[in-house]
Amino acid sequence: MTNGTTALTALGERTRLAIFERLADGPLAVGEIAAGLPVSRPAVSQHLKVLKQAGLVRDEAAGTRRLYSVDPAGLAALEAYFERFWTNALTSFKDAAEQHPQEQT
Amino acid sequence: MTNGTTALTALGERTRLAIFERLADGPLAVGEIAAGLPVSRPAVSQHLKVLKQAGLVRDEAAGTRRLYSVDPAGLAALEAYFERFWTNALTSFKDAAEQHPQEQT
DNA sequence: TCGTTCCGTTCGTCATCGCTTACCGTAAGT
DNA sequence: ACTTACGGTAAGCGATGACGAACGGAACGA
Known about the structure:
The structure is a homodimer.
Chain A lengths: L3 H8 L2 H11 L3 E2 H6 L5 H13 L3 E6 L2 E6 L1 H28 L6
Antiparallel strand pairs in A: 1-3, 2-3
Helix pairs in contact in A: 1-5, 2-4
The structure holds a DNA duplex.
C-alpha cells in the first residue's frame, strides 16, 4: 500500500518490529526468523502477512522455503512520510521560537 | 526516553498518530485536541501520557490549561533510528544485488 | 511413490489496550 | 469564599489482536 500510517501501525508491534529489524540485515526464511525469537513459527508467519500487506516486506519462493526481505518502496514511503512530518514540526518550532525568543533547549 | 522502538509503539496507534499530527502544526491544549477528534477528552489525556513518556511530546502549564507540543528530541531520536535502519537495509540490498545482478525493480 | 521438510491457514483462547463514565484536584474569575 | 473551566485519574467494559495447537498443501530427495 506504501501508506505511511499503515506502515506505522504495522511496525507499532514489538514482535513485528523485531522481525523487520532482522530482515533489514538480509533476506531470511520463516523458520530462521522464528528460531531467533521467543514466538512460534505460525505467529511469525502471521506477522509477515501483516508486514507484507503494509508494503514493508516482499516474499520470494526458494524451493520448499520462502525468503522474506524488506521492500525498498515501503521504506521510501516511510521516509517520505516522516520527512513531511519533520519539516512541518520544525517550521512550527521556528515560528513559536520567534514569538518566545527566550525558552529553548 | 528517546528510544526508537518505544516511540514507534506509541505512534502505532491511529488516534495517537492523529494527535501527534495535530501537534506538529503547533502547540494545543487537551480540550482543543479532543474537540477535533471523535474521542472523549480523557482518552486524549491518556494518549498524551503515553506520547509523553515516549519522549515525543512535552507539556507546559498555561493557566488552567495545559499546552502540549511535540518534543524535538523525540523526533531526532526517531530520525536517527530510521537512518540506521535505512543504511542497514540498503547495504544489504547492495550486497544481494551484487550476487544476483539480474533481478531488480 | 513415499517420506520429509518447510510453510500457510484455521480455530480457539487469553491478554492487551483503547474508550467512556464518573470523580477529584487545581487555577482563574467574581 | 464560591463558582466555573480545564485537565488528570480510577474503574469497568468491549473489542482487537497476538499466540499456540492442529491440520493441510507444496517442493525436494530417495
